[in-house]
Amino acid sequence: MRIRLLACLAAVIALAASLVSPANAELYHPRQDWLRASTAGLFLHWGMFTAPRHTDCAAWERDVTDGGWTPGYWIDEATKLGASYVVLTTFHSRLGYARPWPSKIPGSCSTQRDFLGELIAAGRAKGVRVMLYMTDDPQWHNETGHESLDSAAYSAYKGKPVDLTTRPGFGEYSYDLFDEVMDRYSDLAGFWIDNDNEYWEQHGLYEHIRDKRPSWLLSNNNEDTPIMDTVSNEQKTGMTPSYDYPQAIYTPMPRLTEADYKLPTNGDWWYSGGDQAVDFRLSTGRYITNAGSSIKSLMAETAMLNGKFPPQQEAFNNFMASWTRPIKESLQGTEGGGYMYGGLQPGFWNDGAHGVITVQPGAKTQYVHVVTRPSTNLVRLRDNGYRVTGVADLRTGKPMRFAQSGGYLSVLDITDWDAYDTVFKVTTAGQQYFYDKNTIKATASASADGHPAANLVDGSYLNYWDAGGQLPVSVTLDLGRKRSTAYLAVHERESSPTYARESFGRAEDSARIKDYRVHASDDGTNWRTVRTGALPSNRGVQFIDVGEVHARYLKLEVLNTWSGPQAKPFYRQLALDEIDVAYGYPDPRGEVPLEAESWRNGFEGQATPVWCEACSGTNAVTGLDRGAVVFRDVQATGPSRLQLDTTGPGTLAVIVNGAAPIAVTAPAAIPVPLTAGANTIKVSGTTDLDRIAVAPMPPESSTPKTTLTVQPAGVQWVSPGQQSLTITASLRLDVDDPIDQVSLAPVVPAGWTVTGGPATASALGLGQVLSGSWTVTAPAAQDVSIPVTASFRTLGRAKSVSKPVQVKPRPADRVFMREAEDSANDIGDAGVTGCSPCSGGQKVRNIGPGAAVTFPGVTVPAAGRYTLYLDFTVNGDRSYFVSANGGPPAEVKVSGAGNSTPYTTSVPVTLTAGANTIRIGNDRAGAPDLDRISLGQLAQTRENALR
Fold first, then answer.
1. Is 261 helix (H, G, I), strand (E, B) or coil?
2. Which of 274, 275, 601, 918 is the right S-S partner for 855, CB 3.0 to 4.6 Å?
3. Beta bridge pairs of residue 425
4. Sign of the CA dihedral with 435 first, then 437, 438, and 444 last
5. In DSSP terms, which residues pair with 826 in a beta bridge?
6. Rg (CA), the chain
7. Looking at the predicted structure, is the pLDDT value of residue 20 above 60?
8. pLDDT tens per residue across span 268-287
């Protein structure tokens, strides 16, 4: 598994287009039906370089057969995983380009035994399909000194010279292999293709496959190619929680989507020796959350030479066979819930809980998968308008007590928690109290061509509204006449990840609504604001409660989105599938613990329960400015987190067990000194109280998720003497868990000075940002790290996050030096990626057509001819084209082995005194990855020094 440069560039273009252009892929076709019905697949990387590595094809085949390889073993292991298909990955660039079938086409290893045919037959007998992996890339043909591709033999076969080590030559060779496989194996399910080859595209390979085998699937890795049936997404990491793979996916339903990932925690995609562990928590979590987004889990296991899996992978397979059995109905024949197929809201729930929803067709029967359990004994989630009629533990069949009110379902008194996924079967009577969309008209202040606001109320997820890159932007809903509105259900298009990330050098970010305002009007001219807030950057349907608004017109004004400017295909982009308008919440049922209006509480003074449809229990307590509500017998295990839900902002006084009052700005969550057993909590204040909730304090290590952005980014190379740098930073709170006493500032070494004080805020809420700017001055150039630190408190605990600015003295023989990843540069559609041996630990990759690195402000003391040094990594032969100040580009050819080894080359450039601009790119083909540039001394200066 790997991705190449041009595929990355194509993916960037496809990503940008997917946010603004109509889909032209075949979203539904009968050949896709079997995969739509699947939950998972088994990804098998197994070939000639599987350990122990072979370089002789016949010897490898003999050792495989002598070792006892049987196709039925793989099919049986796939079945244990709930996999309905196997992807055989033998013709792989890192596994010797072996072909596990007797091929008549020379060019690389081909077996006499028909391993592929045997596997297809074994799968057919047990209802498991087989797909064949095909690589596009010859670059690893001589990876360790063994030449895997035989150009002479293939040239003789074709009757003309063909170099298989080039992309065109390899494309022609592999094109012939596609044809041979189609001729030999009518029962193959299709091809799983690891990116595109230019020869294939120029010669219509995919159209040819469609003509010759119209029932076969085509899947592509890491890019959304319209002619393909499936988009596969390789080894995504960095999510919170780590198992929630869909957070990193940018392909909206109903496009068929895979998540391909390794089950062994460490090591290669193929067996390279040893018995690697499998993280059960991570792997089961991925499996469940993928099902909750209708994403197929393509799980990679590392078959040994004889086909058997190492013991720890076998153990995981056996576990999955028994673990999934009692919850099978929630995973097979279901779709992800909270999206186009209906369902409760997935994602982050109460008290640290997290999970997903799966739904049966029609969504009247749903399944709540609690993957991370809450710290309490209840689960509370938005009901999305569904009136719940019953809840049961799917594993045990035990009926569960539940309550529903104010738009929330609460499953109560949970005692039997599964270690990995507690599943509740929820039966419903369908959705209640949404207006018929035929009675609503939608318009917008801006729309992309072909994506009008009318798509928001057409009931179809095949059409969507796109803002056309305009922010702020507003959508106006005309209800036809003056009507009551309780909340909006906003279905954002799932065309971006939920957080800022880097994928194969491509910057990605969330194109979801952050800050918004909702206005109401009776005439469409005079508006009143009824709600201001921020939506979290989460997948699935999101809700905006507006109270009880009576108006004909509603306007949703989107002020900004979560994406930052570093992710150009996502920045300032916004697309919504649908907006539902509700005029009420499902009929209430049952009681949630610690409701303010509960008869179990005491009411002092003027404190009185009042009707509140949007409140939990459909009541709140008012009059707290002239009285108080007293919660008796509040059970706890010790110091706790107290959540206070109110009907609006205000101040509260909280008295715990008769102690001094604690002042609270509501709504809020605060630490309270509860004792083990029964406690009394008394609340008064200036706003109405809906409910309280008590949960154990989170672990000391728990820190709310934030995004800290610091500039300049990249190592700052400075000249000798006193130096000053301007540092800017911003801290954004990414979760709905407020922090307070926030401070942001750089921390400089002794002897340095800082101009500008800390940026501070008394508190930050969801999506809010604190920014600051400072000038730091050093007495002399030094090799230092200047941390920019944000400190704050959460639940009374001190926390901090930090990001450094690296400063280093420039070498004496250089007059200028800058990292390619420096924030001062414009990298276009290229991307920054990690590179541990590189200067600064990063480099810029995906340089090529439409993606160059431009270095502005390249300052030199005098006009003349300089030597420009380029630090780079490359695998094979590639070129840069270098231009200065818009002049003609000079080609710089380089070669190297492996993208993890830095090299240096040079080219002369003529510069003017002062600031210059240098552009490094390649508008014809992929260029090497770029680490850093630097300039030697002026040529005349060097000559004088040599005399």
1. strand
2. 918
3. 367, 392
4. positive
5. 854
6. 31
7. no
8. 999 999 999 999 999 999 99
